[in-house]
Design goal:
mainly beta, four-stranded antiparallel beta sheet, 0% helix, 123 residues
Length: 123
């Protein structure tokens, strides 16, 4: 499975960005796709995930609820992260991830990672 993330960039506080993650290869076995982020000096942290089954169940970190929305286009094997009301503390490298586990409980249960896309929010 290969994951290609895109859409990062520089935005002012309060602005919006949309990240995309396209999966390819043997993606049929993937149960969950989502996003993590890592700011300099910090550990990689969970942002949002969505299941690949018909239910499309979403899960969000508390610090993005109401601001970020994860969605998918199953036909394109692509997951999106719409980020609104961005804050300087959202500045990080955002990584797309995919897990074969039905309910991954931590980043260690993700099997595949994209290359990361940098999001910078200026104050």
């Amino acid at each position: 499975v290969q994951l290609q993330a895109s859409g990062g960039g520089l935005v002012q506080t309060g602005g919006s960005l949309r990240l995309s993650c396209e999966g390819s290869g043997s993606i049929f076995g993937v149960s969950v796709m989502g996003w993590y982020r890592q700011a300099p000096g910090n550990q990689r942290e969970f942002v949002a995930t969505i299941t690949r089954d018909d239910n499309g169940i979403t899960k969000y970190a508390d610090f993005v609820k109401g601001r970020f929305t994860i969605s998918r286009d199953s036909a394109k094997n692509t997951v999106y992260l719409q980020m609104n009301s961005l804050k300087p503390e959202d500045t990080a490298v955002y990584y797309c991830a995919a897990s074969m586990t039905v309910i991954p409980l931590s980043r260690f249960e993700y099997d595949y990672w994209g290359q990361g896309t940098l999001v910078t929010v200026s104050s």
